[in-house]
Amino acid sequence: MKYSLLALALCITVCASLSFGQTTTKLTTVQGVIVDIGSYVQYGMKPNTEDRKGVAEASAKAGNPLGILEKKNGRLYVVIMNDKNTNANTTLLPYLGINIFAKGKVFKRGSMYMLVLSDIGKSAR
Questions:
Q1: How far apart are the C-alpha atoms of 115 and 102, rounded to whole Å?
Q2: How many structural domains are present in the chain?
């Protein structure tokens, strides 16, 4: 009886993890632009002018998260660092408003995407 309950609990746990969280097992490359998540979601604001870049920079320095707006399909990625001792905003801030590529593992829950960043640089396009 104990073993059948243990097997049932294990089956439920595995099924739930497969249903609720998806991840890629390989590094994925995302091309897009760094945006202030709050300004983009509330107002559709991209840091494509100096004024807007200044607003996004001030927001990021105040602790609001930066993310990646993917060029290909408009997905917005929340970015966290592979190294837990590094601040994502500090890493992303120099790339604010320019086309970038970012590599990392992608996680998806519902309609939310998260990128665990391992590499970032300026995109050729």
A1: 9
A2: 1
